[in-house]
Amino acid sequence: MADTFNYRIDHHGSLVRPPGLSTADPEAVDAAVREAVAYQRKLRSTVVTDGDFPREDFRGAVLDTVSGFRRTDETDPDGLVRWVAQSLPKANGPLLADRAARLADLTVIAPKAALPSPAYLAATTFQPGLGVSSARELGEALAEIVRAEIELLVSQGVRLIQLNNPLLLDQLGTDPADPGALSFADALTVDALAVRLDERPEGVRIAVAPGWSAPTELDRTRAEHLYDAIAADRWILPFDQGTPAELDLLRALPEERDFCLGVVDATTADLEDVDTVMSRIDAAGEFKDLEDGAVSPSRGFADVASRPLLGAEDQRKKLVLVETIARYVWGNEF
After folding, report:
1. Global pTM value
2. Rounded CA gap, 290 and 317, in Å?
3. DSSP 304
4. What is the number of other CB atoms lying within 10 angstroms of the CB of residue 140?
């Protein structure tokens, strides 16, 4: 699939926000987004996002916009506020398209849009007895909303759209984790509905980020089933620990799919050794065409706005390192 639209220097979407920035202050958010775009361009990123600055966390594009969900006072270990579904969701307008259009006005590069996957939302918000009959029904309703938003984003010129489902990789181990409210099979069906587009204009990539770390031991059959079931163009895969499972996860990817390797750890300030990273990429190049690849950090830097994983300066160093690695692999051909 090698072409000129691989967006070699990528990042997951969320960035460390300026101190004191509140989503309740739209003017301050807009100013911060403008600064973030300039920052990303200065770092030579080939994708531009709004850093998730307008949202409380990476799920906000959906949960803040559609009806049917209730915010609780509970949080999970990752700092995510728990939401519950009280009825089947309905969209009350665009989720991201309006902001993506404004973002496009700030840069010559088409912006990247990131959305939570419908399967992830269904698995984490379904609660029996609250007005929705099953997690599968909730997921399918969400999938139609997300698919419609993807079509709208594409029609407005967005060429890279990423769905985040942090739960999928947990299901690929030889001892899969508890899938929660939505079974692995149902999760694949739901997310497959969301990425189903009748037409993909040239250069459009629908990406899936299936999790932040590979399982200790990969079940190759389950990994192949994941890729076969969800017809995403691009898979954003962890590649920062140098484990055999990371290589196996990439090896199982069908040849016609793009891949983006999360080559630096976004959770620690320690910088990776370039030679070590390059040796890992060289190993991947023995069975994958690197012309179909890209590089990024392993995950977002602030998927929960109030809990950034690194400070702003450490984030900058990690993003600079990603650019350096990209130039080692592909020179200046972006």
Report:
1. 0.94
2. 24
3. B
4. 19
